[in-house]
Design brief:
The structure holds two protein chains of two kinds. By secondary structure, chain A is mainly alpha-helical. Chain A is built from 20 helices and two strands. The chains are: A mainly alpha, B mainly alpha.
Amino acid sequence: MTLVWLILIPFIGGLLCWQAERWGEMAPRWIALGTMLLELLITLGLWWSGDYQLPAGAMAGAADGAAWAMEWRVPWIPRFGIDVHLALDGLSLVLIALTGFLGALAVLCSWTEIVRRVGFFHLNLLWILGGVVGVFLAIDLFLFFFFWEMMLVPMYFLIALWGHSGSDGKTRIATAAKFFIYTQASGLLMLVAILGLVFIHYTNTGEYSFSYEVLRNTPLSDGVAMWLMLGFFIAFAVKLPVVPLHGWLPDAHAQAPTAGSVDLAGILLKTAAYGMLRFAIPLFPEASQAFAPIAMGLGLVGIFYGAVMACGQHDIKRLIAYTSISHMGFVLIGIYSGSKLALQGVVALMVAHAFSAAALFILSGQIYERLGSRDMRKMGGLWGRMGSLSGFSLCFVMASLGMPGTANFVGEFMVLFGTFGVAPWVVVIASAGLVLAAVYSLILMQRAHYGPSRDEQRFADFDRREYAMMLSLLALVLFFGLYPQPLLDTTASAMSQVQQIFSVADANAATTLLTGAR
Amino acid sequence: MLTMTHLVALTPLILVCITAVAVMLGIAWQRHHAGTAIASAAGLNIALLSVLVIWQMGPVETPLLVIDGLALFAAILILISTLVCVTLAHAYLEKYPGPREEFYLLLLCAAAGGIVLAASRHLATLFFGLELLSMPLYGMLAYAFRERHSLEAGIKYLVLSAAATAFLLFGMALLYAQTGRLDLAGLAVALTEDPNAWALAGAGLMLVGLGFKLSIVPFHLWTPDVYEGGPGPAATFLASASKVAVFVVLLRLVLVAPAFQGDWLHGLLAVLAVVTMLVGNLLALAQSNLKRLLGYSSIAHFGYLMVALVIGDGLAVETVGVYLVTYLVTTLGAFGVVTLLSTPYSGEDAAALHHYRGLFWRRPYLTAVLTVSMLSLAGIPFTAGFIGKFYIIALGVEAERWWLVGGIIMGSAIGLFYYLRVMVTLFLVEPGMQRRDAPHDWGVRAGGVVVLGLALLVLLLGVYPSPMIEWVKLMAVAGS
């Protein structure tokens, strides 16, 4: 039942926020903050009390029937064998905790930014988070799709109603529509793939089922598996984003309100990586194995494209958006390398990127609040004029470029190290991308915070709320950078399952190759 | 020979007709707006109850009509949408300067026509039902005949509808000339024995006639104008009950008659389906009038529905059932809001999109209804529309018709664009422009309650569709 409450709490909290607007505009903020902190506390409680390190014996058996730390299941649409089936393991736990934390940050960072229609804003914000938690918990494919599509609607409203108009005359509504259509249309491809899988299962057994565990064992011919896998992959690739499908991201980030950017970069992008780890690879191991070189190639393209584009941006939020694309390239490479080290690195990198990107977006939101612009051509020499803001910027820019001691370093290092055994050339090229990361990070710092200042005007220093946000983020980045073990322990079993699936597929492929050769 | 069983099976139809006659006599005796509306609603409710009783009986056939699961299913949908129209009309016509009571008479006649049409198993009843459905609609669409647009809508529908009827009759004549039969079962047998070009042409011409009523591309040209011009309740009826009845009879034809399953016509249907969804959605993009937009959207939705006709087996009947229910509930909700905003009647309906700017900040619940309807039309989860779309895509995937599936995905992606535009308009800050508004107490009036109920139903069907699916499955089994 706890799992149901995890999903319901943000939804109920959102409705309360909407209605609470009549008691003044502070009420929705406090309710939203309380809701997200409650969510975070519950997750941390689960983390504390539960055991997510499965014994080695159970791991061998886990290859066919995944083992969950918690499970909840009731029939929903018996006609098609659809259940409300929620399950929690280490991976989803970490990501839900992340959702709770960033959700609280998103509420905090819009404390002074959003002044109009506060209640409805928090309704949308909390519903996005509720949908995301649903995505992380749903194990029935229909339910997963349900939440996957549902979370787009409040995000659309967030961008369309509270967004900023773009610097080059693009309206926020057009941007929001672009975001929605990209993700919704690709989502429909995933629905088609899900249905294809279900009907193949139906022809084999005469029973409808959308259950993850049942469908995992569906025998598929190679060609069909590849097509179905592509259906899933494209949906996730749009959200991650993988480069040819990334068109919505820079605009959406640039024009979303700060809270929207924090959610988008911190959590929504992670749903895509989660989807690949949870669904695309376990459902189609052989096809994923065959597709891995292409996926890694796309990851490489993403790393370089994102970095090069980031160097040419004037809008500070667009710059950070492009760096996200670059970082997600590493995630994609790690996911498809199939080595356990790299997969654990992916989790670490996802968490680290969530913190650093969220922090950078919050910082640019704060610059915008003080300066009234996000254009770096109008900045320069901010160091010393904005109190501690520039110092924090420096810290998080360093984190984002993967400085040792920060969590990002742990993630990138593990991804590269783990992949090296599988695809050394990919790692060599990807490492060159790290140089570009240093370039765009320095450009950001140099143009915004150093250099000649345009005037001598001084801006307000951080207040206590802003200090609290930044310090907690910085503490987490450093903590996981210096001692990532708790994170790795929690997700170890989930990741080793993925790794096993991959290696089994590899072995199968090798056998087919051998028998073919004979 | 007409027996007692037949009479019992026909009770809903008879009850609707009795109500129509009673309303007519009542008008002749003394005009009373509220009384007429209440009498119509009561008659429709009793008819609805009788359908639920007859549901237990199993199929009954008379020479001209068949009362099976499909017919009863259609009857329920038609009666419910007529009830909604009556409730909306009552509020809408309250301040109408001309005679108000006749609207209910027309509505009841059209409902009776729809029920006959959906239950027909003979070309004579098919024609009779179709005309009984269409004739009152001319009057309803042109009811506010002092408005240029309303009159134009009525006349346009009259002229084009007559042309379509001519096609239909010609098709029937060709089929009759070839086979000498007019009942559907007989036609089916005769055509299986001896399929030839003339019979095929006949079937094609009938398809044109029915396609016109369903506004399938390229017979859709009348739709936006008529939707825009007709008074709210009339447009609601046209978009809901009328389409359901015609679609059910088309489904019957396609399922029964092998001429429709021939390769050539089958291919034609598939092409028409794809073209209809794409053209409907594309043309809707440029609309700035909500009623026109809904008109194009309904074209697109019937494009999706035609996928079920093309595939015609497996889940097809169940899909049609589920989709029709979800489409009906959603459309009634959307048109209901438009009608309520134009209530009470004062000239042209408030349908231009700028009337809706910032509606949320004035009428949050009414806007919520329209938002839910738009989301449902777009097929977003948590709404009924998603279940319908899920069924259609499932059907396409099951039959491995990838072109049709591709068309649905393309159409949905394009469709999102204009549904989102309407939605965001509702929430935008209002400029100081002059605007129309629903009466202040809309939420507690009959029309408001109905519209709110529809929105809740859309959400309920989206979250917990099992009972509906079970019910439709029952219909599909009973119907086949």
